[in-house]
Write a structure and sequence with these properties.
Length: 425
């Protein structure tokens, strides 16, 4: 095993290593491990796993995604041959809970107990109802050739509501529930070793708390969970994504700053909501503290603050955004045709969209390009403009979520535009 992961994390936090040169979150298909304490292996992969071996028993905190499960299994087995007795799902996202089967195949499923929060089975039930939708999200976000999402899930054998414990030999693992990225989240505290496993409550990027294509997230509860974890004084933090962190001061700093990031957005958003502001006004006013966005562990490269505001509005204000025309709107295509006629045709809208985008007015250009293709869905020239506008949007965005959505729009319109010259198919 190697200490490079620990050294890299320390260098990023202390500012001696650049996050641009060494991104802290892996996106490859491999896995590498570091023994952070006697018998405790941290496996760094896209979604991390912690393997705890004591007195001949193995316990896993998370088990990885279908894509990474094999590499994770091999890494754990290079560390210990102890049979898996328990696995804790920190939450039900598929990148965290699909590696148990390889360990069960060694001894039999009856010998492995999976433990999770009581809301996790309901998440799996919901996934089975929305397989097609979730597959479409993955196709759009990651530019896949077809929708992709699992249909079968390893449900837990034991669930809990607030707090519980599991054993790994002589070690006690305290399981605590808090809402955050999900409503079924568990974080794990190992008091004998002063080790904290956060799951996705800390992920080395700005909190994934506003995902525009996913269900409700809980920013205030998330911040409160981070404060509870910070109060423990942990010496080691093992996150759901990214690098392990050692040293009580560093652990306190990253947890406290992440909490303050969420607290600031929540406070400012709720203040404006309570003053009667519309969603549009809030979106274009509330900003995360600039000094926090500069932290190596709070880069908005996956989610971003603007999306968190949307999520807060949905949580506390419902879906009506304050614009009466959005309450019972006309079909988008009908509105687009009307505006195109007023403007002098779809070509005028598309041309202006192109001009605005070239001038850096990407949001406004995006609106007009969308209107042009909604007004005439088969218009090849309009789709060419829409593709270019969204290509520019991808270039100017930092978050994977925004890049994925704009990139998919570019892809779809590029396919239409490639059908040939002229104004229609």
């Amino acid at each position: 095993m190697t200490d490079d992961l620990l050294e890299l994390a320390s260098g990023l936090i202390d500012g001696t290593i650049s996050v641009e040169d060494h991104p802290p979150v892996s996106i490859g298909a491999g896995a590498s491990g570091v023994e952070v304490d006697d018998g405790i292996l941290f496996v760094e992969s896209f979604a991390n796993v912690t393997a705890i071996e004591d007195s001949g028993e193995l316990v896993l905190v998370d088990s990885g995604s279908p894509m990474h499960a094999g590499a994770i299994h091999d890494t754990v087995r290079s560390f210990t041959r102890a049979p898996l007795r328990r696995a804790v799902h920190t939450h039900g996202h598929v990148d965290h809970c699909f590696g148990v089967g390889l360990f069960e195949a060694e001894t039999g499923a009856a010998d492995v107990e999976v433990v999770a929060h009581e809301a996790l089975p309901e998440r799996f039930d919901r996934y089975r109802m929305t397989t097609g939708y979730n597959g479409t999200i993955n196709q759009r976000q990651f530019r896949l050739g077809a929708p992709l999402f699992p249909e079968e899930f390893r449900y837990p054998d034991r669930t809990y509501r607030s707090d519980t414990e599991v054993r790994a030999g002589t070690l006690t693992l305290e399981l605590h529930h808090d809402k955050g990225e999900t409503d079924d989240h568990t974080w794990v505290w190992i008091p004998q070793r002063s080790i904290l496993c956060t799951g996705d409550l800390f992920i080395w990027v700005a909190p994934n708390c506003g995902n525009p294509q996913k269900v409700q997230r809980y920013p205030l509860e998330w911040a409160a969970a981070l404060r509870r974890m910070q109060a423990l004084g942990a010496e080691t933090l093992l996150p759901g994504h990214g690098l392990p962190i050692t040293g009580a001061a560093r652990v306190s700093d990253v947890l406290g700053d992440t909490a303050r990031f969420l607290e600031s957005i929540c406070s400012d958003t709720l203040e404006m909501m309570n003053a009667g502001a519309s969603l549009d006004e809030i979106l274009h006013t509330v900003r995360a503290p600039a000094e926090l966005l500069g932290r190596p562990w709070l880069q908005p490269v996956y989610d971003e603050p603007e999306f968190v505001v949307h999520n807060l509005w949905r949580l506390y204000g419902g879906w009506y955004d304050g614009d009466p025309s959005h309450l019972k709107p006309a079909p988008a295509s009908r509105l687009a045709r009307e505006l195109a006629e007023l403007a002098g045709g779809v070509g005028v809208l598309a041309e202006r969209a192109s001009e605005l985008a070239a001038a850096g007015e990407l949001r406004l250009g995006g609106h007009l390009a969308e209107l042009a293709t909604q007004a005439e869905p088969d218009n090849v020239s309009a789709h060419g403009v829409r593709a270019e506008v969204n290509r520019l949007r991808v270039e100017h965005e930092s978050s994977l979520m925004a890049k994925g959505i704009f990139g998919w729009a570019e892809h779809v319109s590029s396919e239409v535009a490639s059908r040939g010259p002229g104004e229609s198919r």
